């Protein structure tokens, strides 16, 4: 009796609490069977789709109607009772809160909303805008049937405007039909449009299509993509086509983007841009009409043309895999290290050999001087005989004492191998055009007082290096975007103590095309490494597809072949000029021989004049 009397008040209290909860939460807005039907559909999405994409899941409930929010919470409770596969971050977003609900990266999101305004309240657009890797949005829109078309279109337009490529919207109709809609940004009927397209249906047991997020960029139906570029051979070469009244491109990067266009079936619209000096750019990356600004404004889809990757650009824009990398090298004129004519005369022998030779010369002079005095020839006669013997000349008068003849003969025969080795080494070294050891690093060049020249874009990259940042005046930027022009300036300034910093492949191409390739020295230690790629607006939905295709082309070797062929074309264009220039004898290479011969003739003239003066003095 006591038990029965105690249980009745408890049952009444439980029923009263449940009735109050149902009244305020409105979870009875539809039958429990329909609720379980929707819950099974969501569970399969989470287990078979979202859980395969990430080990964590962000579930956000954002509604402007309080009763719908309670119904979403009831649905989540039903799901969690039977599902424990992945970690869940459940976010309840109240429209009366002004602060940002939750900040941070949300890669896979399940959003439960009752309207487009509820989606905006999540503020998830700002949270994911700075990331390049793809994100996935599965949006459950719960609204009245007559409100669904408008709200669905607003949500899909939002997905397109913010580059949400993997964006699905699930709805439930009054007939308890669970449908999934998405959009294709490029279709046969429209380009850059977000028309709702049904992609899946739940039949009560499973989804009819296993692939919940279809590939939307494998077929772009010839829709145009705007490519902003500029002439930068051999990467990009632009030619005006008068028949089509438009620019036509060629070069390594143009070949790459044309191959991507064939694979994805889109058309190209090339926009030729005149590059300005970077110090005049508003962002230090592009003018108001520069490549960075145009991409930030999303007025173009892709920008390329030997576009270097930097931390600033990667922060502002999106870039797929870098398809080109090369060293920045320092190039200088070997003329600065050429051994002079006087230094070349001393170069064949080391200092110890010259010291021994000088000592032997003094000894023989000491032996012949007393002999010359006794014969009346004086100091000059004995000294000239010793020098004449060293140079291989015969004596006009032999010394009378036999020991002096023996010493003279010894001195003559001993000097023969010295003369032979010296003369052969001298002419061999003149033929080799000897240079002193040039610098092998950027630090050595700066320590020796060299001035660097480069393009303004390269200078901005070099200023991030500590040794250059300490002395920014050690580099001077030229008003040109081409490393080829920088190397031409280096060629015209042979007497200045300067060096150029340029791309390694461009430098090799320039040296192959130069009439005097051996007149330059490339410093062995690279200055820096630069990476080049194409850039797109931040969070572009083209990133995932282009990155995947570029990686496939690179793994297949196509990119390397196109790059090698493009630089080989530049070599062939300049080959005729190089061959014509080398047909003629370069007298500059023979300057060492001319100086040596002139010095020898001058010395012979002085010896001859001295002999005449001595002969006249003897006669008098």
From TrEMBL:
It is a multi-pass membrane protein. It is found in: Cell membrane. GO terms for cellular component: plasma membrane. The keyword Cytoplasm does not apply. It holds the Pfam family LBD_receptor. Its main location: membrane. InterPro entries: Insect_Ionotropic_Sensory_Rcpt, LBD_receptor. This is Putative ionotropic receptor ligand binding domain-containing protein. It comes from Drosophila yakuba (Fruit fly). The gene is Dyak\GE17504.
């Amino acid at each position: 009796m006591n038990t029965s009397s105690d249980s009745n008040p408890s049952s009444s209290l439980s029923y009263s609490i449940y009735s109050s909860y149902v009244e305020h939460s409105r979870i009875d807005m539809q039958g429990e069977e329909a609720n379980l039907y929707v819950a099974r559909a969501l569970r399969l999405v989470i287990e078979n789709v979202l859980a395969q994409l990430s080990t964590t899941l962000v579930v956000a409930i954002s509604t402007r109607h309080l009763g719908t929010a309670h119904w979403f919470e009831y649905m989540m409770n039903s799901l969690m009772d039977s599902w424990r596969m992945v970690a869940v971050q459940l976010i309840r977003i109240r429209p009366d809160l002004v602060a940002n609900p939750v900040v941070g990266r949300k890669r896979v999101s399940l959003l439960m909303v009752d309207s487009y305004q509820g989606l905006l309240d999540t503020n998830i657009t700002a949270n994911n805008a700075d990331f390049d890797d793809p994100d996935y949005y599965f949006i459950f829109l719960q609204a009245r049937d007559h409100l669904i078309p408008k709200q669905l279109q607003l949500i899909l337009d939002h997905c397109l405007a913010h580059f949400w490529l993997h964006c699905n919207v699930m709805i439930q109709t009054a007939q308890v039909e669970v449908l999934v809609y998405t959009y294709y940004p490029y279709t046969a009927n429209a380009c850059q449009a977000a028309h709702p397209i049904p992609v899946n249906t739940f039949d009560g047991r499973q989804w009819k299509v296993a692939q919940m997020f279809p590939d939307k960029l494998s077929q772009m139906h010839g829709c145009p993509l705007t490519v902003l570029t500029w002439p930068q051979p051999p990467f990009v070469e632009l030619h005006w086509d008068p028949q089509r009244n438009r620019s036509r491109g060629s070069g390594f990067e143009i070949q790459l983007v044309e191959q991507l266009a064939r694979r994805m079936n889109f058309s190209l619209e090339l926009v030729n841009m005149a590059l300005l000096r970077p110090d005049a750019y508003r962002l230090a990356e592009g003018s108001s009409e520069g490549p960075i600004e145009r991409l930030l404004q999303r007025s173009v889809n892709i920008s390329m043309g030997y576009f270097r990757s930097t931390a600033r650009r990667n922060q502002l824009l999106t870039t797929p895999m870098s398809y080109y990398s090369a060293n920045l090298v320092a190039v200088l004129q070997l003329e600065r290290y050429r051994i002079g004519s006087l230094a070349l005369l001393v170069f064949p022998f080391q200092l110890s050999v010259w010291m021994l030779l000088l000592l032997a010369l003094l000894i023989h002079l000491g032996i012949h001087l007393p002999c010359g005095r006794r014969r009346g020839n004086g100091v000059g006669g004995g000294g000239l005989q010793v020098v004449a013997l060293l140079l291989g000349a015969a004596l006009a008068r032999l010394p009378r004492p036999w020991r002096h003849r023996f010493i003279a003969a010894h001195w003559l025969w001993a000097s023969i191998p010295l003369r032979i080795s010296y003369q052969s080494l001298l002419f061999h070294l003149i033929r080799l055009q000897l240079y002193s050891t040039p610098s092998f690093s950027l630090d050595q060049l700066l320590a020796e007082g060299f001035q660097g020249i480069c393009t303004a874009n390269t200078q901005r990259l070099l200023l991030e290096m500590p040794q250059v940042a300490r002395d920014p005046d050690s580099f001077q930027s030229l008003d040109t975007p081409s490393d080829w022009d920088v190397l031409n300036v280096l060629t015209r300034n042979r007497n200045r103590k300067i060096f150029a910093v340029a791309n390694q492949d461009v430098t090799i191409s320039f040296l192959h095309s130069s009439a005097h390739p051996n007149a330059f020295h490339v410093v062995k230690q690279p200055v820096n490494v630069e990476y080049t790629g194409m850039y797109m607006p931040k969070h572009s939905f083209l990133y995932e597809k282009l990155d995947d295709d570029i990686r496939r082309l690179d793994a297949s070797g196509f990119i390397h072949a196109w790059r090698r062929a493009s630089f080989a074309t530049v070599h062939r264009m300049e080959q005729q000029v190089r061959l014509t220039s080398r047909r003629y004898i370069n007298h500059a290479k023979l300057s060492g021989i001319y100086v040596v011969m002139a010095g020898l003739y001058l010395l012979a003239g002085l010896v001859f004049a001295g002999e005449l003066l001595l002969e006249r003095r003897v006669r008098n």
